[in-house]
UniProtKB/TrEMBL annotation:
<protein>
    <submittedName>
        <fullName>Membrane protein</fullName>
    </submittedName>
</protein>
<feature type="transmembrane region" description="Helical">
    <location>
        <begin position="149"/>
        <end position="175"/>
    </location>
</feature>
<dbReference type="InterPro" id="IPR039708">
    <property type="entry name" value="MT1774/Rv1733c-like"/>
</dbReference>
<keyword id="KW-0472">Membrane</keyword>
<keyword id="KW-1133">Transmembrane helix</keyword>
<keyword id="KW-0812">Transmembrane</keyword>
Amino acid sequence: MREDRPANRKRRRTKVPLWRWRNNPIRRRDDVLEAWLVLAIWVLIAVGGTAAGVVTAHAADQVFAQQRADRIPVSAVLLDDVPRTATSEMGRDLASAKVRWTNSDGSMRNGMTLVTTGKKAGSTVRVWIDGQGKLSTQPPTPTKAAVEAGLFGTSAALALSGVVFGIGSAGRWWLDRRRIQQWDREWTLVGPKWGHKTS
């Protein structure tokens, strides 16, 4: 008759937490190296990933703020008709067209920019120019810039974390290979000394 275990008896735990950090007879030098490697990986991911994200987001935000400061909207005159049959760009009803605008110094400039389709020559359109009076794109609004800076920062943090994790995984794989080779060498030495063979 089988004897049942008491219901309140706890199962014995076989896994020892942080065993690589404790002195024990089965711990090897490679185990200690792996413990330090894992610690370094997580510290670099936590600290380095956060720092990379914050620095990248801050740099992107500064670039967007500089664009808002440098670029100004001006009125321009459309020099050609832009029919509605024109091919839409970027999924919107936009097409490239030639425009003329006046810079702050009074000089007239011509250039190509995207305008809404269906406009006739002579129509007034708003374009953005940079500090040198050249056509530019509209700078992002502060809200859109904050979102984009956050996305850039998150991407930088994830990229750095991925690289660190990949390097750490390669290091752990190398340590595993070394341990297996050491075990093979030791088994070759110890195995024949045993008084019997298994079949």
